[in-house]
Write a structure and sequence with these properties.
Shape: globular
Radius of gyration: 16 Å
Number of helices: 0
Helix content: under 10%
Number of strands: 14
Oligomer: single chain
Largest sheet: 5 strands, antiparallel
CATH architecture: Beta Barrel
Strand content: 35-45%
CATH class: Mainly Beta
CATH topology: Thrombin, subunit H
Number of domains: 1
Length: 145
C-alpha cells in the first residue's frame, strides 16, 4: 500500500500488506495523489509542479520506477508558472480566461489515475479543467490519446 503524506511531511510511504512501513521516498513538496501502473509508481508532486508523476509547475508527468528511479518525462512544453495569470491567461482586456491547450502538452497537471490497461488520465488545474488520456503502447511508454 502506498500513502502520500502531502499535507504533513511531504513524504511517500510504502507499507507491506501487514501494515509495516517498508520504504519512504523523500524529495516531494505536497505529494497529492498516487497511482501504480505495473511496476511504476506515479506521484503528483504538487508544490514542485511535477508528476512524479504529475509535475504541476513543470507541466509534465514524471514516470519513476517503484524504487524512485527516473524513467521519463511526458507531455512537457506547456506554459510556465512564471507567466502572468498562470495556469490561466489574460485576454486583451486583462480578464483571466482559460489558456490555449494543445494535444500532448500539459499546462498544469494536478492529479492522475490509471486504469487496468495501464493508461494514465491526468487532470489539469485551469479554468474549465481538462483531462488528458495517456494511452500505453507496446513499447511500454505512453502517448497522448
Amino acid at each position: 500500500m502506498w500513502v502520500a503524506d502531502g499535507y504533513g511531511q511531504s513524504l511517500v510511504h510504502r507499507h507491506r500488506p501487514e501494515g509495516e512501513l517498508d520504504l519512504t521516498l523523500e524529495g516531494f513538496a505536497t505529494p497529492h495523489s498516487i497511482a501504480v501502473v505495473d511496476d511504476l509508481l506515479l506521484v503528483c508532486d504538487r508544490a514542485n509542479g511535477r508528476v512524479v508523476l504529475t509535475d504541476f509547475t513543470a507541466g509534465r508527468v514524471t514516470v519513476l520506477t517503484r524504487d524512485g528511479e527516473l524513467v521519463e518525462h511526458l507531455c512537457s512544453g506547456g506554459r510556465s508558472p512564471d507567466e502572468d495569470a498562470w495556469p490561466n491567461r489574460r485576454d486583451a482586456e486583462g480578464n483571466i480566461v482559460r489558456p490555449e491547450t494543445a494535444r500532448g502538452v500539459l499546462n498544469s497537471p494536478h492529479t492522475l489515475a490509471a486504469d487496468r490497461n495501464g493508461d494514465v488520465f491526468v487532470t489539469e488545474w485551469l479554468i474549465g479543467g481538462r483531462v488528458t488520456k495517456l494511452a500505453r503502447y507496446r513499447g511500454g511508454s505512453w502517448i497522448s490519446a
